[in-house]
Amino acid sequence: MISIENLSFGYSDRKILSITKMEIKEKQHLMILGKSGSGKTTLLHILGGLLNPKRGKVMIGETDLYQLSETKRDKHRGQHIGLVFQKAHLIAALSVEDNLLLAQYFSGTTQDKTRIAEVLKSLNLGEKGQSKVKSLSQGEQQRVTIARALLNRPKLLLADEPTASLDDDNAMAVITLLKEQAEMNNASLIIATHDQRVKNEFDVQLNLNEQ
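RE: above sequence
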């Protein structure tokens, strides 16, 4: 389970985010809604261990995320949290497989081509392992970022605006893939979005406009 207590983040001139209490059950799917500047990405980055809150507690299972040193927090993220960013952050000149091998290397886990092939196959990218990223369509690149997030079988999958640059068909396909992959990996899934097209795909929602 993920729990947040008395969380706040902001700068000297303005408060961006304030949450008194929030709990996300194991394997639960949550959509974070809000207009631009409401704190969606900030909250996702805090949950991912990327951004220290001004105050408050973030528990991922039994781990108090911000009581860990930065090095231990990075290691925890690499082992237990999968991140799907709004931009792909892939190396265009490298193959899909090489991008995923790099992800395993930087997360401090064993480089495992068998696991890479398994994840790519589950995302209908089984024939794309040796393809250069620059040769892929936008939808295929988005699926590679999902593959990267799933490599280490995370218990928490975080996706920031995963449908923002996709057409209607690809947007729904990505949401379906994220939900299916979260279920296959027994992971909690949290998506931050302002995309009204996918609003009805999640029963549990947090609207930051109402905070």
